[in-house]
Amino acid sequence: MKAVELIEVDSFSMRRTPSFRDCKVLLIAGGKPPSDAWLEATTRCFDVWVADRGVTYCRKLNVIPKAIVGDGDSSPLEDWAWAEEAGAKVYRYPKDKDYTDLQLAIMQISRSYGRSVSVFVTAGLGGRLDHSLSNIFSLRLAEKWGVDAAGFLDEEESLILLRGGEELKLHFYNKPLAISLLSLTPCSHGVSIKKVKWELDNATLRLDEPFAVSNELINDEREVDLKVDSGCVGVYICLGPK
Predict the structure, then answer these.
(1) How many independent structural domains does the chain possess?
(2) What is the pTM of this model?
């Protein structure tokens, strides 16, 4: 199977070097959900997994996930029963546990796909700040389990993780309101972004000095090129409400 070269959602597409892995998973978490139309369209392009409350979002749209992972404390039992009856695998954990539902889902995805999977999360941002921050850094933790946790997607905001040695080309169908770069490691070196108002060329970004925010495309430009030599940068894309 060939590596996935292009990921497309409704407002933009992206190519990464090295390429995304052979399998694509959309992991639906329990944060602020995307719109029904966006979720229904996007789930057609991915294997769908859910972490606890995500099963409720799926049932509303009759999107049957491949698997449900979690403790069931934030979704009705009948939603779990609906998915299980439709063929979803169920990985249920006790409420008192060491890992979050999202972390457990990523671990189980690793066991199911090995190193052949790139994971995107939706409904992982918004709501409680501690949950959002935990989810962001859980994608960094995913490397420990051999998972290419590629970032967060929805129709209003996305956060793509760009790690050392990777390059990313973004093509926008709808012009974003802002693009921000946030180092998710103490330092990220060799950071470049081109075709924007404030370009960077082999810059160093620091976790404790987040200055590279609210950038914008030049005039009618619709593409952005990025690279990182070492560390990990979160490429935040603010698309705004539809």
Answers:
(1) 2
(2) 0.94
